[in-house]
C-alpha cells in the first residue's frame, strides 16, 4: 500500500469548486479576444492560489486546483490528447430537468499522449500547494469516457479506427503515458472521474449501450480492462482512485440506479487504491453492493454529503449511514466526502461559494466526530 493512502484523513473531496466570477469574466473576455492567453493565465493562477489557501484554511489535506482552468471536467483533458477534438453538436446531454450546452468530443486522428498541456497545470498546483502536510491531487477523466463521443462509427471516424476495441488499444497507451508523465512531474495522487459505469446500473441505461451498438455484458469488461491496464503502470508510491458519478450539471443528474448492476466488477475486480462513491440520495441505492469488496487495502470514500443543494445534512444521520456502510466494509477503510464536485462544468451547481465552504466544513466536522 502507498504511504500516501495509509495516511489519508477520513475526509476528502472530489475536486471541483465553484468558479469565481473573476474567472468566468476572464474566460469570456478571452473568448471574445479582449484579453490575451497570458492575461487569462495570470488571473487563473491568482484565483487558484487563493483557492489552495482556502482549502488549507478549512482543513482539507488533499488539494486540487478546483478545475478552475476547465470549462468541462472531461472534455478539456480529452481534447488535449492527440486525435481527439471538441466539437459543437445539435443537442446537449439530457439531464433530469436540464440539458447541457451542446458540445462533445470527436476522434480526428490516432490517439496519443504528447506533452499534454495539463502537465503545466499540475506543475503550478504542486508548486503552490508545497510539501508541508498537504497533497496536490490531479484529476482527469477515465479512459472510459471515450464511449460518449460524437460520430460513433461514422465514415469520418472509420478513417482512423474500425472498432471500439481498436480505439482502446491506443487510448490505453495514451493513458499509461499520462500516468508516467504526471508521476514524473511529482504527482503522487491521480484521480480518474468516470460517469460511464452508470451505463450498467439500470436496464434503461443498458438499453442505451445497445442503442450505441454495444453489448453491456461485454462492454463492462472492456471498461474494467481499460482501468486495470492504466493502473498497471502506477508506481508503488502513487495513489490512483476513481470517482464514479451519475452526472452533475447545474445541480441536476443524468442517471439513477444502484451499484448492483456492476458491483462485482467495480468492488471486486478494479485495481485501484480507492473509490469515491455517490450515496447522497436514494438514486444510488443501498450499501449492500459493498459486500463484494474483499480487499482490506481498498479505501472507500462515501459521498454522503450532496453538492447539489445548500442545506446541511443532519450530522447524526450521516454518522448512522457511515455505521450502516461499516456492516459491509471495515470502518477503517471508509472515508467521507461530498458525492461530487461543486462545479463539474464552469456553470457550477446552484449554491453560493459561502454555502459551498459550509458543506466542506460539514464533511470535515462529521468525519472528525465519526472517526475520533
Biggest sheet, spatial arrangement of strands: 5-6-7-8-9-10
Total count of domains: 1
Number of helices: 12
**Number of DSSP E strands:** 10
Under the CATH scheme, which architecture would be assigned? Answer: Alpha-Beta Barrel
Gross morphology: globular
Helix and strand sequence? HHHEHEEHEEHHEHHEHEEHEH
Task: State the end-to-end distance.
Answer: 23 Å
The value of Rg in angstroms is: 20 Å
> What is the CATH class?
Alpha Beta
| Percent of residues in β-strands | 5-15%
CATH topology: TIM Barrel
Q: Specify the helix fraction band.
A: 25-40%
Description:
The chain has 372 residues and is α/β, with parallel strands linked by helices. The protein has twelve helices and ten strands. The strands form three sheets. A six-stranded parallel beta sheet has the order 5-6-7-8-9-10.
Protein traits:
37% helix; 372 residues; TIM Barrel; six-stranded parallel sheet; transferase
